[in-house]
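Troubleshooting: if your tokenizer reports a length mismatch, compare your output against this known-good record of 283 residues.
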Amino acid sequence: MATTELGRALRRWRDRVSPRSAGLPEGGRRRAAGLRREELAMLAGISVDYIVRLEQGRATSPSSQVVEALARALRLDPAERAHLFLLAGLAPPGPETVPCYLTPSVQRLLDRLGDTPVVVLDAAMTLLVANPMYAALMGDPSALRGFARNRVWNHFLGPPGRIRRTPEELRDFETRVVAELRSVAGRYPADLRLRELVDELRARSDRFDELWDSGAVGHVESSVKTIDHPDVGALTLDCDVLRVEGNDLRILVYSAEPGSEAAEKLRLLSVVGTQSLTSHRPA
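Known-good structure output:
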């Protein structure tokens, strides 16, 4: 019964979200005003086939990560999000786990910054949602799964990214991200996913393990970053870190000084988008 109710709820919520409100074009003939399955799949970062199986009741055990992604894509309020977890046979995340909920106000902020690269991370620095301009600047993150969506894992264990750092900047960045992750682990000691992330990083990265053993705590600050883009070349941008304290989120906003060469390159990226990008790995 719960599975049937889950499918009905997903379809009802999908029909409620207009493409425009989700930042998608409304072109083409539509049988309903809401999102198509393909659009929901793209927004949530899961396959269309899995959406179909969930709605038809043929998929019975979605993971908490899938449920969280669906809740964000469907723009559910806190009560609806909790109900979706229960329909999926899962306990809604409690205060002992890293929050992954995007408030309506954060979503509205993203909607209004369409011409600015913006990405939202949870406290553990796992990517929750990125706008198209961020994908154009850093590489499309929509295909990333699991720990590959985590900024710290990506830096220490993933392939090289697009951000250029001097040796001094690299040391400072690594020290700060590990110190922030340690602070987060202290706030959420019962979060099993976070514990697994730290264990894997310590087991596979000597550099991370060394920094973790230092015991430092702290947080990542706003900075200036140089991004080597495969199509438009190097861009030097301000990266401001905005913190949503109530939900423990980090919003990274990349901007250029008006009239600068970097601002012109960002404008070009807003036109080109991701269509000519050669790398899909975000930094």
